[in-house]
C-alpha cells in the first residue's frame, strides 16, 4: 500500500473510505479523498496557523485489506502543523466528524494521531459539530495535545481497517468523515516529557572536579560528599548536551511496560536512556572467543558502521533487520528476542537511536600472539577519561575501518563502559576505594556492557559491570547478566503518583 503526499495550506480535510467486495481476504478497496474547505478551524484567539500536508486530489489505497496496527503505523501520514504565534499556551483537539449515511461500524475503523492508535469506537464522543455543506452524523475527539507559546507542532494522522475485521463485517460498507482541528488558549500546563521532568527536578552539576579514578561512592566517601556529588551532571555526546546520573541516586526510577527501569542519561538528541533494574538471565556475549570480530555487536558486516553510515537495525512486525548485513552477536539476539516478548506493544514509545560498540584502535596490534587494545580500554584504564562521543571503528594506522562493531542505531542494546564510568564505576582494583559500594548501577550480579576491552591469542574480552561495584572485563564466551537498555522518545510524556519526590522507587516516573 502507498499514499502520495503533497503540501498546501488548508483548514479541513475530507476522508472517504469505500469498502468494495472482491475475493477472499482481499475484498476491500479503500479510498480516501481530501478536499479543501476554509470554515472548519475553530479558534478562540487569532494566534494559530494550521497547515495540512495534502492537496485536493484523491489519495487512494487500492485493494486494501485489514492490516495489523504495526503496519498501519508505517503508512505515510496525513500531517497537520499547528503554529502558535502567541505567548500563551494552547490546547488542541483533533475532531473526526462522521458523515451521515456511513455504514461501516466504528469498531472496525482504527485511527491514529501520532503513534497513539485506537478504534473509533474507543474514542470520546462529543456534541455533533456543524460543518457547512456537510451532513455530520456524529463527532469524536481522536487526539488532543498542547502547543506552547511561539512553538509549532506537527500532528500525524493515520487510519486503516482494523485487522480483526471479517469479510462479512467489511464488504459493501462505506465510511466517510471530515477532520477539524479546534484550538484555544488555556491556563493548563502541558504534560512534561520525561527529559523535561528530569531536568526540572534536579540541580545540574559540573563534573570539572570529579575523580574518575575512584569508584563513587566508595568505602571512604563521606556522607557529605555523597550528598553533594551524587546527582545529575552535564557532558557532551555526538548529538549535543547529555545529562547523566552519577553516584547514589534514588530519584531516577521509571515505570515502563510493566517493569522498573533506572534512568542513565538524557541523550543529546533528547531521548532518554534507561536500563532495566534487573537482568533477563545470564548469557555469553558470544560463544566463540578466539576471533577479534566476536567483540562486535554484529560482525562480518558488508560495510563499516560509522557515524555517517551507522549500522541500523530496523524493526517491523516483530522482525529486526540489519542494514549492513553481518551476523548478530548472541547477546544481540537475546535482547531482540526479549524485546519481542516484552516491549513489542510499547514500540511507539521507544526511539531508535545511537549505541556505541567502540572498536576504535587503542594500542597494540592484531598480529598473531600480540595484544590488541580497543579505545575504551585506553580511555578508561589508562587515562581514566570517559567520553560519550562514539569513535569511528578505525584500525591500527588509521587508514582502514573494521567490519565489526562501531556506531549503531538500535531499538535495544546495552550500557557501555563510558556510561558506567560517568555513573560512578571505575577499574577493578584491590583498593576498596575503587569499588562503587552504593551506586545506582550496582546489582547483586555482574552484567555485560557493549564495550570491547582487548584481545590476544587466547581470546577477546568485553567489559562488564561487576557485582562488587567496579568495571572489569572477561572473555566473550563468559556468562554474565544481561541488563537491557532502551531509549524512550524525546516527546514521551509521564505522570507521577504524587508531585512530591518524583522519580523515587515509591513514586516513579510513569510513562503514559
Structure description:
- The protein folds into three domains: 13-185; 194-276 and 490-511, no CATH class; 282-487, no CATH class.
- 10% of the residues lie in helices and 36% in strands.
- It is built from seven helices and 35 strands.
- Strands 13, 14, 15, 16, 17, 18, 24, 33, 34 and 35 form a ten-stranded mixed sheet that branches. Strands 1-12-6-10-9 form a five-stranded antiparallel sheet, with no helix packed on it.
- The longest helix has 13 residues, at 330-342.
- 46% of the residues are buried.
Segments where pLDDT lies below 50 for 5+ residues? 1-45, 55-63
Category from helices, strands and their pairing: mainly beta
Amount of beta strand: 35-45%
How many domain units?
Answer: 3
Helix content: under 10%
- Number of alpha- plus pi-helical segments: 7
Rough outline: globular
- According to DSSP, the number of beta strands is 35
Amino acid at each position: 500500500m502507498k499514499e502520495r503526499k503533497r503540501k498546501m495550506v488548508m483548514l479541513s480535510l475530507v476522508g472517504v473510505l469505500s469498502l468494495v467486495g472482491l475475493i477472499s481476504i482481499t475484498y476491500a478497496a479503500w479510498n480516501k479523498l481530501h478536499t479543501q474547505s476554509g470554515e472548519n478551524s475553530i479558534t478562540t484567539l487569532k494566534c494559530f496557523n494550521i497547515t495540512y500536508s495534502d492537496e485536493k486530489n484523491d489519495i487512494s489505497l487500492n485493494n486494501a485489506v485489514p492490516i495489523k496496527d504495526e503496519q498501519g503505523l508505517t503508512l505515510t501520514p496525513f500531517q497537520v502543523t499547528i503554529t502558535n504565534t502567541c505567548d500563551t499556551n494552547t490546547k488542541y483537539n483533533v475532531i473526526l466528524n462522521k458523515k451521515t449515511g456511513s455504514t461501516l461500524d466504528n469498531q472496525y475503523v482504527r485511527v491514529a494521531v501520532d503513534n497513539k492508535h485506537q478504534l473509533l469506537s474507543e474514542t470520546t464522543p462529543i456534541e455533533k459539530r456543524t460543518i457547512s455543506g456537510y451532513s455530520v452524523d456524529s463527532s469524536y475527539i481522536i487526539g488532543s495535545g498542547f502547543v506552547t507559546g511561539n512553538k509549532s507542532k506537527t500532528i500525524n494522522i493515520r487510519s486503516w481497517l482494523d485487522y480483526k475485521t471479517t469479510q462479512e463485517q467489511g464488504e459493501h460498507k462505506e465510511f466517510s468523515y471530515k477532520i477539524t482541528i479546534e484550538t484555544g488558549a488555556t491556563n493548563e500546563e502541558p504534560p512534561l516529557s520525561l527529559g523535561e521532568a528530569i531536568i526540572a527536578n534536579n540541580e545540574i552539576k559540573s563534573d570539572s572536579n570529579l575523580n574518575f579514578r575512584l569508584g563513587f561512592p566508595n568505602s571512604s566517601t563521606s556522607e557529605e560528599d555523597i550528598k553533594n556529588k551524587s546527582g545529575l551532571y552535564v557532558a557532551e555526546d555526538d548529538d549535543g548536551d547529555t545529562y547523566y546520573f552519577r553516584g547514589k541516586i534514588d530519584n531516577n526510577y521509571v515505570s515502563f511496560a510493566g517493569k522498573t527501569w533506572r534512568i542513565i542519561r538524557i541523550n543529546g538528541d533528547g531521548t532518554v536512556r534507561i536500563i532495566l533494574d534487573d537482568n533477563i538471565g545470564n548469557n555469553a556475549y558470544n560463544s566463540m572467543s578466539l576471533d577479534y570480530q566476536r567483540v562486535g555487536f554484529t560482525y562480518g558486516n558488508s560495510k563499516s558502521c560509522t557515524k555517517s553510515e551507522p549500522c541500523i537495525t530496523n524493526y517491523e512486525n516483530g522482525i529486526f533487520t540489519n542494514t549492513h548485513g553481518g551476523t548478530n552477536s548472541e547477546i544481540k539476539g537475546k535482547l531482540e528476542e526479549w524485546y519481542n516478548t516484552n516491549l513489542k506493544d510499547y514500540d511507539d514509545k521507544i526511539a531508535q537511536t545511537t549505541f556505541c560498540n567502540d572498536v576504535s584502535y587503542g594500542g597494540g596490534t592484531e598480529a598473531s600472539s600480540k595484544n590488541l587494545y580497543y579505545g575504551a580500554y585506553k580511555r578508561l584504564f589508562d587515562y581514566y577519561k570517559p567520553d560519550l562521543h562514539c569513535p569511528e571503528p578505525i584500525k591500527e594506522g588509521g587508514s582502514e575501518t573494521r567490519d565489526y562493531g562501531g556506531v549503531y542505531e538500535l531499538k535495544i542494546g546495552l550500557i557501555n563502559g563510558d556510561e558506567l564510568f560517568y555513573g560512578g564505576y571505575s577499574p577493578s582494583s584491590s583498593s576498596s576505594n575503587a569499588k562503587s559500594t552504593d551506586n545506582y548501577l550496582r546489582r547483586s550480579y555482574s552484567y555485560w556492557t557493549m564495550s570491547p576491552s582487548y584481545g590476544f591469542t587466547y581470546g577477546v574480552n568485553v567489559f562488564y559491570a561487576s557485582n562488587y561495584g567496579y568495571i572489569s572485563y572477561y572473555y566473550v564466551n563468559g556468562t554474565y547478566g544481561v541488563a537491557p537498555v532502551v531509549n524512550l522518545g524525546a516527546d514521551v510524556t509521564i505522570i507521577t503518583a504524587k508531585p512530591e519526590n518524583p522519580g523515587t522507587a515509591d513514586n516513579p516516573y510513569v510513562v503514559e
